[in-house]
Design brief:
337 residues; six-stranded parallel beta sheet
Length: 337
Amino acid sequence: MLPESTIDNPASRTRCYALVDKLSGRRDVVLLTSKAHPDRVFRFLRNTRLVLSLYPLSKRAGNQVTVFAQRGTKFRSRVYLLLLWRRVTRSLIVFDFDDAVFVQFPKGTRDLCSGADAVFAANEYLATYARRFSNRVFVVPTPIDLSLYHRPPAVPVKGDVPVIGWIGTSWNLEYLRILARPLQRLRMSNDFVLTLITDPTMVRGLDLPPDIRLRIVPWTLGDFIANLATFDVGVCPLPDNPWTRGKSGYKVLEYMALGIPPIASPVGGVIGTIDPGKDGLFATTEDEWYVHLRNLLEPQELRDVIGRAGRRKVESRFSLDAVARQIDSRLDELDGG
């Protein structure tokens, strides 16, 4: 398994590192771990060394090796060294991606899609792109590790003021501007706290109403679940563009896994995640965001019903066990030709 980045990276953590133990039951899994480093040259050399390490691994395994390459198309050398390794050793490559990386890195993504033996894409939009270059493309959702996503007993009982929450990386903070007007209207009729789990140093210029009670919590691997569990409602606002259509909707799954009712823009992978009115809600216009937020803030019973339905869906379709079984089956097909 060849992840693009470290375990702190959301895509690498969920689509690569989290799967190692689940896939190790029937396979000899070797994880070629990446290390964080600010220097670009160091990262280039590190990625090159990891791919070159495949040659001795392949030799010891009699060239019966399948590499699960998670993203990484921004490193052109990585792509071409992988494809050269495949040609020389006649081993197999599965290319896995969960974002519209072809928007940023078109050549590397195209070459890896066409050169890999199979492509795993996080949603149908990404799979449609990959099918232009490969006839062996499978939609594999991003899994949720339910052993982690449960309300910790240390989380205090929620107060009377409900919490609207958002979790995400700093480069997605701009999407919160979609909520500026709905939150301003909501503030006139309802009391609430807006909690953001992200990099606090990057929260600036969001243009949110100044009278909103805002709480910013840094994301850390050790306590993000406990902070996420304080949410009463989870939001996922997105514009509709070629980049966001490739998103897997993972934050929505995080909300659902903890029984938190989500409200989301119907864009990208979110569309296949929520059954509107049952385990979440879709909002496109300002009025829809306002009405859905207001309706979920007022009756606790409605939040509970939607939250329980969301948890059940994650258990049945998006759990780590369910997705690992799907991947294992696809790898069996690949091994069999």
